[in-house]
Write a structure and sequence with these properties.
Strand content: 25-35%
Strand order of the largest sheet: 18-17-16-15-14-21-22
Number of strands: 22
Largest sheet: 7 strands, antiparallel
Radius of gyration: 25 Å
Helix content: 25-40%
């Protein structure tokens, strides 16, 4: 059995009861603050030394018995495979399913207590996204009681009276590689090259590189794309795939001037890696349809076989207008099709030129640097 076969399709959280005095730093601060309050009250009331000793004993007893329920991932050592990414986030939206029938609660948990049993959920239409800026407003779904029924698998963009939902329905007959491509297309197609969402980035104290908990609602539960540059969107897609048990490598490029680009690659079912660039929305294949790693792309460029490289547009998006792609500062804005140019963001020759220029050095996670002379 391969390592992939041992990895589950999704990771589960477990709720556990944890003693506060064995918890993280903020738990100890809470206990310390509680102790200070108790002892301070004693001092104010000028209690006796015996009262003081009794209070200290009470605080110690409280510290050893007070418990609270935490929601956290399994320790890294218990994960089915090594992971440097932040834990699974079960309480944040990830609308990726393997059925064409969904309970409305799967998209909007608790909507009935909030709106009442008589509230009628209605689909108002769909909405444009970077990968599909032109839409006729018709949603490919219907409401049947407390369920949504879709006529096909694939990407769906629903505008309802409960909110906006971006949904990816994966055919359950899909193999692992097809799932990787479907998720990568979904993320790349709903991201534009901007730093406007940079304030949403948060690092994780025990894992690299970021926790996506403030990005997930934007991607899945709004009518807006993610507005990120190459590094953060590669980190985000890496988290999405790692969360489902796939093996990820980060790819860093540097040109002669030290300027860089960041992408990633994922281990496929044949044991090889496939290069994925969610910023440009690109994958690269051979003429025979084999998905290529950055090393194989490098070898083709080094051998002068550029014509053998087939660049696949998984992002399907247009250039963002320059005024919405400022480096610093990059103010927030609401994306709409009018803010894009009628120019494909991914163009084969310029994309391969970029790889060639920025390959003065290539750093692949866990491997020696590839030097310029190799190209």
């Amino acid at each position: 059995m391969s390592d992939r076969d041992k990895k589950p399709n999704s990771r589960r959280f477990q709720s556990g009861r944890v003693q506060l005095h064995r918890g993280p730093w903020y738990s100890r601060i809470a206990i310390g603050s509680l102790a200070c309050i108790v002892l301070g009250l004693i001092a104010v009331n000028r209690r006796t030394r015996a009262d003081y000793a009794s209070a200290v004993a009470q605080v110690a007893d409280l510290e050893s018995t007070l418990e609270f329920v935490v929601r956290d991932s399994k320790p890294k050592s218990e994960h089915p495979g090594p992971s440097r990414f932040s834990p699974h986030l079960p309480d944040y939206p990830q609308y990726i399913f393997e059925s064409r029938t969904l309970k409305i609660d799967q998209l909007a948990p608790g909507w009935k207590p909030l709106w009442g049993d008589d509230f009628e959920v209605r689909i108002l239409g769909d909405f444009p996204t970077p990968c599909r800026p032109e839409t006729d407003g018709t949603a490919d779904a219907v409401v049947r009681g407390d369920e949504l029924k879709f006529s096909r698998y694939g990407e769906h963009y629903l505008h309802t009276n409960l909110g906006f939902f971006k949904i990816l329905l994966v055919d359950p007959s899909s193999d692992d590689d097809q799932r990787v491509i479907a998720i990568s297309r979904f993320v790349a197609g709903n991201t534009v090259h901007s730093l406007a969402d940079e304030p949403l980035l948060e690092s994780h104290p025990d894992a690299w590189p970021l926790t996506p908990k403030r990005l997930l609602p934007v991607l899945f539960a709004s009518d807006q794309p993610l507005k990120l540059h190459c590094g953060p969107v590669s980190d985000f897609l890496s988290w999405m795939l790692d969360d489902r048990g796939y093996e990820i490598q980060q790819v860093n490029f540097r040109n002669r001037d030290g300027l860089g680009h960041v992408a990633m690659q994922v281990k496929m079912s044949d044991g090889g890696y496939a290069y994925i660039d969610p910023d440009f929305g690109a994958m690269v294949e051979s003429r025979d349809g084999d998905r290529l790693s950055i090393e194989e792309i490098r070898d083709a460029l080094r051998a002068g076989r550029r014509e053998d490289l087939v660049v696949i547009d998984i992002g399907r998006k247009q250039h963002l207008r320059r005024e919405y792609n400022l480096i610093d500062p990059s103010p927030p804005f609401s994306w709409s099709p009018s803010k894009t140019l009628d120019q494909p963001y991914l163009r084969r020759e310029s994309f391969l030129d970029m790889i060639a220029e920025y390959s003065h050095r290539i750093f692949i996670e866990g491997m020696p640097a590839i030097e310029k002379d190799d190209l």
